[in-house]
Amino acid sequence: MSATLQVPTGTGCLDAPVLRERGQREVFCGLTGIVWLHRKIQDAFFLVVGSRTCAHLIQSAAGVMIFAEPRFATAIIDERDLAGLADANDELDRVVAQLLARRPEIKLLFLVGSCPSEVIKLDLSRAAERLSQTHMPDVRVLNYSGSGIETTFTQGEDACLAALVPIMPRIAAGAQPSLLVVGALAEVVEDQFRRMFAAMGIERVSFLPPRRSVDLPGVGPDTVMLLAQPFLADTARALEARGATHLSAPFPLGEEGTTAWLHAAAESFGVPAARFAMATDPSRQRASAALAVAQKKLAGKRIFFFPDSQLELPLARFVSRELGMKLVEVGTPYLHRDHMTPELALLPQSTFLSEGQDVDRQLDRCRAARPDIAVCGLGLANPLEAEGITTKWSIELLFTPIQGYNQASDLAELFARPLLRRTKLAV
Questions:
Q1: 83: Cβ–Cβ under 8 A, 6 or more apart, which residues?
Q2: Does 162 fall in a domain?
């Protein structure tokens, strides 16, 4: 291990009080996850069983060009379905048959539940089983819920990946240890991590979700997993039930977080300190140099996190420790203590934490604090901007590759750009 490497430790705000709010929420629904998932699993198709509103949401969020042919669509539930005048299952079977006839390259079809499909009590799990029996072995059909009644927008990915776990090949005990990286990552980030693990000598590495559903990795008692995203509670629970062991670590945001995340894998696989340093030092040094430049723009700036994506705690740790920003409030939709302990341990003891949402009260606190920048959902951004508070859209942090060393400066720039824009507009 290099002399400059220090794996961060501490107690931070582990014992800090948490304000728990259970009021009105302002957040996108879990259908939004389709926007990045359909790009990741290249032979999968996402069929939303919902309304025209669902279709408009996904199409708008994805920015689909008129000539593009994306791998998602909506089976529209109209007035006849809602009134019970049509057999919803017959209609769904017809739409699926038309889709698969048109797109024979589909190997995995997700039926994605929505608020309308839940309102009419359409049992998509049974529909998926029935359609799988009809279309296997060419196409496997699974289902999950992206309903906004139940989920925040990142939980759509969690529900999707959890639906994949039961069909992952089972690896018996006694196999060679393997590493499973869990969470949808941009291909460029996945390739960087794969090279990094190979340089450490960790060869048996898989990613969930895979790029092709036919390459779904196996899981068993000799599988250890690293979470690449902080909102995968159900997926992690399902993998642990299959025997996998979760490696506790900060999430791979920034130089510090990425180093600690990689170090957790290195320790699990017995990688010598010198080899870990050789594999990581060049990238660490480049990331640190880039972040030093960004820190000059952001040090001392005050930041307020509204609860939206569950990325808030890792982002707060990054901007506080590596960019020198001051945390006004760090809100998160759900605080998963087991997964967030390494992040909480690195936050300042004085951090004001909130879980859940009462949007009016949080807006009042934000207005009173007048932070330099607020990280929030699109629904709050325009009103806050109109009141003179600079904002960063939290959903952009999901669409942009931000994990790993090479992306650390890009992540910092996502916070610097809104402040620069505000300065230019003021002139």
A1: none
A2: no
